[in-house]
Amino acid sequence: MFAIQYGLILSCVLSSITGFSAVLDMPGTMKRFFGPNHPTTAIFIWNFKMQFVSLLFVYALNVVVAVYTPLTTLAYVLACMNLIRVGYVMQYVVSAEKVALLGFVENGKMLKVIIVVQTVLAAVIACCALLSSSDPEYIVYAATIIDRGDCCKGFGALGSYAYFVYFLCAVGILGRIPQVRNPIKAAKRFMAEGKSLPSDKGELLQIEFAFGFTAINYLQIWVFVLGLTFVVPSATPIAGFMTLVCGVGISMIVKTIIEIDEHGFAMLPMLFFLTLLSVMFGASVLALLA
Q1: Residue 144's pLDDT is what?
Q2: C-alpha 110: how far from chain center
Q3: Distance between CA 253 and CA 139 in Å, rounded?
Q4: Residue of higher predicted confidence among 219 and 113
Q5: Rounded-to-integer distance, Cα 234 and Cα 285, Å
Q6: How many CA atoms lie within 13 A of 88 on its CB side?
Q7: Chain segment 125-180, per-residue pLDDT in tens
Q8: Per-residue pLDDT band at 36 (split at 50, 70, 90)
Q9: Which listed site, 3, 41, 146, 217, has its alpha carbon 20 to 30 Å from 265?
Q10: pLDDT score, position 222
Q11: Are 51 and 122 contacting, i.e. CB atoms less than 8 angstroms apart?
Q12: What is the 8-class DSSP label of residue 106?
């Protein structure tokens, strides 16, 4: 293994600790971030959990790149993605008013720790990529990856599966951009008739933070996967990643539909995403088996 691969995997492992902890123990995570008087509204808890699930998907991209396409360009992009997420969190942390409204304990201590850790890990990824770029053995290896990518021949290694990947990425990118620009306005579109978001200013800011963070994560995922299609040696890395994302997404949406009255979501958007992810899941499994 080369330094770039060690850096990417190390970053994934360390970053995923908080993500898995949140997904497996949401009540405990809520207490760590907000203290004993943490938010209890179903819609915020759903968004807060989705935020960590999407982060785990982002971290999984590190492993995909490390195993299949450990190119320095991709590593630098992943490091920049870390810093973009840090920047998103920073805009809340630097405002004492927002930290107070969000209700984070100890003046947002957990967020500050995450900012430092993710900044350091971004530097680790970049430094490891820089070390590999001067390694003669790595240079030869990277050249073979670029050759295998076959990026100048249409769909390259993806074949007809590329249609499914490009369509999902396009829908994901176009759908997430408005959510990044105005999280609350976008969140309102998912609410059922007669249902509304909380009116309390603090609760609204909490939803804005979690919903906007999730939107940024998925926007990064779809843009990165779209670029990845031009350098992967086969459909396996993308199909495997999509199988994971769609499989988890389907299970979460089904659970949400069962509890839809509790969350206040409209049924139509849930059915749309369930259908979209189900089709992509089937196409990805077939691509893996081909």
Answers
A1: 83
A2: 19
A3: 44
A4: 219
A5: 14
A6: 22
A7: 999 999 999 999 999 988 887 766 544 444 567 888 999 999 999 999 999 999 99
A8: confident
A9: 217
A10: 97
A11: no
A12: G
Any residues with CB less than 8 A from the CB of 203 and at least 6 apart, and which? 39, 41, 44, 197
d(CA 7, CA 184): 36
| Cα–Cα dist 199/197, whole Å | 6
Query: Residue 264's closest CA among 177, 163, 195, 194?
Result: 195
CA gap 203, 81 in Å, rounded: 27
Are 231 and 146 contacting, i.e. CB atoms less than 8 angstroms apart? yes
Q: Taking the CB of residue 255, how many other CB atoms lie within 10 A of it?
A: 11
CA 183, 188, 190, 195: dihedral to nearest 10 degrees?
150
Chain centroid to Cα 88, Å, comes to: 14
Cross-strand pairs, 191: 265
Q: What is the pLDDT of residue 205?
A: 92
123: amino acid identity, one letter: A
d(CA 281, CA 142): 30
Contact 48, 111 (CB under 8 A): no
Higher-confidence residue: 38 or 59? 59
Local structure of residue 95 (DSSP, 8 states)? -
Q: What is the pLDDT of residue 89?
A: 93
Q: Residue with structure tokens 């004993």?
A: 36
> What amino acid occupies position 21?
S
Is residue 279 classed as helix, strand or coil in its secondary structure? helix
Residues in the chain: 290
**Integer angstrom CA distances of residue 144 from 38, 148, 219, 269:** 52, 6, 29, 43
